[in-house]
Amino acid sequence: MRRLARTLIVLSLAAIACFGGASDNGAEEETPEDARPPQRIISLIPSITETIVALGAADRLVARSDFDTDPDLAYLPTVGQGLTPSLEQLTMLQPELVVAWPDNATRSVIGQLADLGVTVYSPEVQTLADIRQTTRELGAMLGLEEKADSLLTFIDMELEATQRAVAGRERPMVFYVVWPDPVTTAGPGTYIHELILIAGGRNVFDDAPGLWPQVSLEEVVQRDPDIVLLSQAGEGPLDVERLRRSVGWRELEAVREERIFQVDANLYNRPGPGVSEAVRRLARLIHPDAFPGE
Known about the structure:
The protein is of the alpha/beta class and 294 residues long. 35% of the residues lie in helices and 12% in strands. Strands 5, 6, 7, 8 and 9 form a five-stranded mixed sheet that branches. Strands 2-1-3-4 form a four-stranded parallel sheet. Helix 4 (128-142) packs antiparallel against helix 5 and helix 5 runs parallel beside helix 11 (275-286). The longest helix is centred in the middle third of the chain and has 21 residues, at 145-165. The protein is globular, with a radius of gyration of 22 Å.
């Protein structure tokens, strides 16, 4: 399966600010403005916003999107939805770097920003390897390589600890519902698929032809997963109750036996530093006996 490539569009990797030796008259050379890491950043991708915060650069953010839920960033002005931001408001804030979703056939946000002379970083993050690479790239752009290395070391340690905790146990079939109508799930080649494996489960759609495929309820019933995970933000429990009464969903043994769980979409559906917490919560749902006392 083709792995989605990461695109860097109109990207200028800012070099780490450094100081040269003394000049002939003894004065210290000034660091060129374009060699300094960006100090005014707007991230339109919530998972990247969280990475910037985790790197200790929250003070460089000058705006947020409507989907950034961190209360510590609530004071920042919003530029609207991440896929379709207000370009007028965005450019008025004079960012030195904008992190934007990759464009598709129906959008041209990146091209419009480039036409306005804005430097844009547009990562496409689908796998854990992509998360690591994006974190390293952000560390280089922001002059925070050591913090990026420390963050990645912590994430890897947490993933490995979870994997050890569930090692050797039987792997139940897990159905991850990205969206219930139309039914959308995570296929192979996604970080969700990888997290399920690390947490000691098996993705019931590990043979799906796409990354985030739509599937029929009939096929879900036929595969009969052991555990159903419904990713929802906000009033999720009401949706779980509705599904328990719905035709198709109520045919699933996992639903009848109350092995359907709501998981926080704001944590699970963001491929960033939160994956370490997401995988541990996931492992507790799949193998609760592996975490006594938690």
